[in-house]
Prior knowledge:
The chain is built from five helices and eight strands. The chain is of the alpha+beta class.
Amino acid sequence: MDALLNDPTIKKLITGLLVVLIILFVVMALSGLKAYGTIGQSVDLNRTISVNGTGEVVAVPDIATISISVDEEGLDIPTAQEEAAKEANTIIEFLEDSGIDEDDIKTTNYSINPQYDYVQEICPVGFRCPGGKQELRGYRISQSIEVKVRKTDEVGAILSGIGELGATNVYGPNFQVEDRDALREEAREVAIKDAREEAERLADALGVRLGDVVNFSDSGFYPYYDRFGFGGDTATLESTKTVPELPVGESTITSNVNIIYEIR
């Protein structure tokens, strides 16, 4: 055994093996220290690109909303109600005869309010006047009706007919697109496409590749409806055979999105 250990070749092998073991030990020790130094520190090294996108969709309104009010007075409530109901029913009958569905006509307000006159008492000369007093004159019935007109090219004729029937006030028309949810979805899709194209341009300029989407936010929608009224937002219609021309205009919905992409 001693002769084997004293062999020069064996000694070189043992020495080389010891050197290798020492080197491995040092490398493992240094790796452990490096790992210990990163404990508690963030190792999230993801690189990202943040881009904004805008989508705009324009559509022609397919409905018009009109609000109609009827006001009538009477000495007592039943009398006032009877007069108001007679006028409102005449207008509703006209609307239905014009092809408007019963579901598109609804009452939005009905109110009864007492009406007073202020009477000034006669005051004798030289005496302090006690002032006037309120005397009940009667009652006012107000009924508001909202109607949805689906044939926008007939709005003018309907307004003219309502005026001939003696409606007290008319508000509108307000032209809109009925299925606004579909427009919102379409506007969002356009905005997302716009953001993607912007991200691809930036990635190409920076010499990187787009990865997965790491965040998406939608800042909402901004609808704009061209609104046209008859004599302004509020009109008192009088009997007329002239049918007003009412341009429908366009409706626009804008969507804004922000998308963050991982880059590689």
